[in-house]
Write a structure and sequence with these properties.
This protein is α/β, with parallel strands linked by helices and about 250 residues long. Helix 1 packs antiparallel against helix 2, helix 4 packs across helix 5 and helix 5 runs parallel beside helix 6. The longest helix is centred in the middle third of the chain and has 26 residues. About 15% of the residues have low confidence.
C-alpha cells in the first residue's frame, strides 16, 4: 500500500515538473500546469491524486509530536522548502497521556515555547495557528494499550480544539517499527490497531486523518530499512530521505 501511495505522489510530481517547465518557457500558467498534472495522473489510473500545496501553505501550521516528529523538525530546519515556516512543538517522550499531565509534575515532558515549558494546547494557542498536525501515540500504546491511548487522544484533541477553535486539525497515524525492534506490548500489530481507532475517531469528529504509516511501511508492515535512521537503537526514527517523503506526502494529501 505504501509503495502505491508513493507511485501516486511521484507520478504527480514528475508530471507537474514537466508541465511547470512548459509554463516557465512561456506556455501554461502555474495553476494550469498543476491542473494538467492532475489530469495526466488521472489518465494513468491515479484518480485520487490532487495537485500538491506549496510549502508556504504550512506557514500558519504547527506540528505536535514526539521524537519522530522532532526528526522532521530538524529536517525542515535544514530544508525550509519542505514545509515552509511551520512551527514544531515536540518532546522526546511526549504522548497523548503525558501531554495531559500537570505542567509542574516532576516527570512531565512538555514543549518549550516563549521562554518556558508550556502545555501543548497553550503552545498552539499562543501561535494563533490555523492548522494543527498531531502525531502522538507511540509512547502511549505500550503503556496504556490502544484503548487507553485512544482515550487520551480524545482528551488532548478536545483541549486543542477548545483552545484553538476554528483551527483545522490533522491527525497523523503512528508510524511503523523496524523489523526486529518490536516488543510484546508495542508491535506493528498494536500500532495498526491504534491507527484504526484513530481513523475512526477522525471520521466521527470530522478531522483529517493522514496515513503516514502506509507511506513508510514495507510489504510486511515494518518500517522500511532504508527509511530508518536508528536501526541500532529503537528502530522507529527516520532518515532525511524519509522526512522528505513525509513532507511530500503532506503537501499532496492535506
Amino acid at each position: 500500500k505504501g509503495v502505491g501511495i508513493m507511485k501516486k505522489i511521484l507520478t504527480a510530481m514528475l508530471a507537474g515538473a514537466l508541465l511547470l517547465c512548459t509554463s516557465c518557457s512561456g506556455g501554461e500558467s502555474s495553476s494550469e500546469a498543476e491542473t494538467a498534472a492532475v489530469t495526466e495522473a488521472s489518465k494513468l489510473g491515479y484518480d485520487d491524486v490532487k495537485a500538491p500545496v506549496d510549502a508556504k501553505w504550512f506557514d500558519d501550521a504547527v506540528f505536535v509530536g514526539d521524537s519522530v516528529t522532532l526528526k522532521l523538525n530538524y529536517y525542515c530546519d535544514e530544508h525550509p522548502e519542505a514545509l515552509g515556516s511551520a512551527q514544531f512543538f515536540c518532546a522526546g517522550s511526549l504522548g497523548f497521556e503525558s501531554a495531559l499531565w500537570d505542567i509542574d509534575r516532576e516527570d512531565a515532558v512538555h514543549p518549550y515555547y516563549k521562554g518556558s515549558v508550556q502545555l501543548v494546547e497553550d503552545c498552539v494557542k499562543l501561535t494563533g495557528a490555523k492548522k494543527v498536525f498531531v502525531m502522538l501515540g507511540m509512547n502511549d500504546i505500550g503503556n496504556y494499550g490502544t484503548d487507553g491511548a485512544m482515550e487520551s487522544a480524545r482528551n488532548l484533541i478536545g483541549k486543542l480544539k477548545s483552545k484553538s477553535d476554528g483551527a483545522l486539525i490533522y491527525l497523523q497515524s503512528v508510524t511503523p517499527i523496524l523489523e526486529g525492534h518490536e516488543y510484546d506490548d508495542l508491535s506493528n500489530t498494536h500500532v495498526r490497531a491504534f491507527n484504526e481507532k484513530l481513523q475512526a475517531f477522525c471520521k466521527e469528529e470530522g478531522y483529517k486523518y493522514l496515513d503516514i504509516y502506509s507511506v513508510m511501511a514495507d510489504e510486511n508492515g515494518y518500517l522500511r530499512a532504508e527509511y530508518c535512521g536508528d536501526e541500532e537503537a529503537q528502530g522507529i526514527h527516520f532518515t532525511d530521505e524519509a522526512c522528505g517523503i513525509w513532507a511530500d506526502y503532506l503537501k499532496q494529501n492535506v
